[in-house]
Amino acid sequence: MHTRGGSSSRGQSGLGFGSRVSSLLLAMFATMATIYVAGRLWQDAETRLHLVEELDKRIGQGKSAVSVDDTLKIIACREQQKRLSAVEMELAAARQAGFVSNKLVDKGDGHSKKRILVVIGIITTFGRKKNRDAIRKAWMPTGAALKKMEDEKGIVLRFVIGRSANHGDSLDREIDNENRQTNDFIVLDGQVEATEEQPKKSKLFFIHAVETWDAEFYAKVNDDVYVNIDALGATLSTHLDKPRTYIGCMKSGEVFSEPTHKWYEPDWWKFGDAKSYFRHASGEIYAISRALAQFISINRSLLRTYAHDDVSTGSWFIGLDVQHIDESKFCCSSWATGSICAAV
Fold this sequence. Notes:
Shape: extended
Radius of gyration: 35 Å
Pathway: Protein modification; protein glycosylation
Strand content: 15-25%
Helix content: 40-55%
GO molecular function: galactosyltransferase activity
Number of strands: 11
Largest sheet: 7 strands, mixed
Structural class: alpha/beta
Protein name: Hexosyltransferase
Subcellular location: Golgi apparatus membrane
Cofactor: Mn(2+)
């Protein structure tokens, strides 16, 4: 009896000890859980307070609760701010659907400067130095006079050319040497200079020009065209109140589906059974407003090109709220006769 009683007492003592250990472990677990939950609540409270402060800064209101929608807006705002520095110009333009008003622009030096009237890109190529020299003698200032025209008339003039397929060869060196003497080129390093590349070259010119100069208009001119600068400036100035403007000698024309034809259009089937191009400005000279140049820059990767540069440019504005202006002063005959024409 004594022996059995002792064994029973030890068993009960063991059970008591096990119960105390379990209770202790449970208490420890509860304490840890409490600390964890409290920490999370404290963290959430700090986050919530920060969100409230951020929301108050943005809406200018007093202390208020932050809803889920408000929280998501603030988080989205932070993500946008991370990207803002890299795409500030594109986002600003995109917020206005690529369209902006004609206003004075602050250049960041504390002084407001009037926007340039027009940047004119004279499309040229290798082996046409005689054409360029003729333009320099006829209507394009050189040296200090070129800078004076920019400052006084707000007109920027540059020859536009790409690079040789054999980058750095004698063709490239000749252009580089000429540019060192005249300083009047836009050399598109990423563009191969070839006839079939002309549409892409025109697109790249507009992209480069709108990212380099803040102008009201951007004009493309061939290097066999005579331009009356004063008359061109006066004509463009009459359209300053039209923010989405496409100005040129508007035409249409037949789409040629025969591969052997000089003006063959590989995408001829896209132009309908009548095989006629939509209305677009003749390629000798045309101008687009700043908003349209920005549109091209922003959507560069989405805008496709056709066989001809003038058709390609016209295609980019189909479906947009753009004012097509048929300007007789921009009508030249070089596309039909090969002769030099005048824009007066």
